[in-house]
Design a protein that fits this description.
The chain has helices at 9-16, 18-40, 53-70, 80-94, 107-139, 142-172, 186-209, 215-221, 235-240, 244-275, 284-310, 317-335, 345-369, 376-383, 385-404, 409-426. Helix content is 72%, strand content 0%. The longest helix is centred in the first third of the chain and has 33 residues, at 107-139. It contains 16 helices and no strands. Helix 3 packs antiparallel against helix 15 and helix 6 (142-172) packs antiparallel against helix 13. It has one domain: MFS general substrate transporter like domains (Growth Hormone, Chain: A, Up-down Bundle), CATH 1.20.1250.20. The chain is mostly helical. It is globular and about 60 Å long.
Amino acid sequence: MKQRADKTFWQLWNLSFGFFGVQIAYALQSANISRIFATLGADPHSLSYFWILPPLMGILVQPIVGTLSDKTWTRFGRRIPYLFVGAAFAVLVMCLLPNAGSLGMSVSTAMIFGLVALMFLDTSINMAMQPFKMLVGDEVNEKQKGLAYAIQSFLCNAGSVVGFVFPYAFAALGIANVAAPGIVPDSVIYSFYIGAAILILCVIYTTAKVKEMPPKEYAEYHNLKESDNESKSNWIDLLKNAPSTFWKVGLVQFFCWFAFMYMWTYTNGTVAANCWGTTDVASEGYQAAGNWVGILFAVQAIGSVVWAMVLPQFKNRKMAYSLSLVLGGIGFAMTAFVHDQYMMFLPFVLIGCAWAAMLAMPFTFVTNALEGYGHMGAYLGLFNGTICIPQIVAAAVGGIILGMVGSVQSNMMIVAGVALVIGALAVTIIKDKTTE
């Protein structure tokens, strides 16, 4: 097997730069979906159900994108065409979704319009996001994958910070942060518009700067016969033959993404009730809390960037992974007991530690374990199921669990904390190919 040469820092940077724009779109979605649907009139006990669509589309789209791109070669590359088409669709839908309540439709029709728009938005974001993971697996040697995914994690968190603070920043500039009942405020609508513009510019940059290796060269560098990646193999066969690390990391992923689904769903209600003392979605306090959630998520992203620089200092990656998840679990539990908007920074910094590990470590373990297997894109698309399935499960049972914990949204953050600690315990069963 030929050895892939080391890449320069800027070559690794260019591979993932478009992820910055994709993550702005994802951040706007994750920080504002509950706010948008609550503004449109959704009941808190039903709020988690609106979150089923994003991971459901992810589990459908990403394996398809991975499998098709394994067999694709154009003069633009094998992964990049999917990245570009996904980003283009995301831009269109980002201009439609926040206007769900502004088109003169009834409440029920606006909800349906919003759901359809959300479905297409998450489909396109997933289509644009997955190729970046595949590009690192394709183009970067085993030694540099940790650095490559760390750069991707940094760009991901930087994009998140930008997306999260947009509504707060626009409100500070004087753009309306409240609107008539059932109407999404202009501060949110403009955030989606600007985010869409940045997304397409970043993706164009990566498209222009990155040249993927052709199939023959790819086969030489990945110890494959050229036919290995083109051979017909259904997803069930691939899963049967997947390395054990694929499944062990997947178990950890289940508890991690289960937890974060509840953060995205219930942070807005938690902050509004604990720090602003309101549950009235049409009130100025609730909308102010919605903007502050963006700031808290930005703090989480900044904490993640800082912790991502600490993680490589650990000699034992499994210990670093486990510790990160425990810190995040403590942060989740703390949010239920904090009633000052600025003191909320501390738990979200801790949550950022878990997020840093979740972004980089699973893909490092799995792509290293997959060397020589072929079908890298299909495997990574299927691995996305370990992200999507726990979110679907969490969303489906969210209303039930909320009722069991007294219908108090902040209690759902404690549930999330417990899930992360269980995930930290599950890390112990992973085998690290590079150290064991």
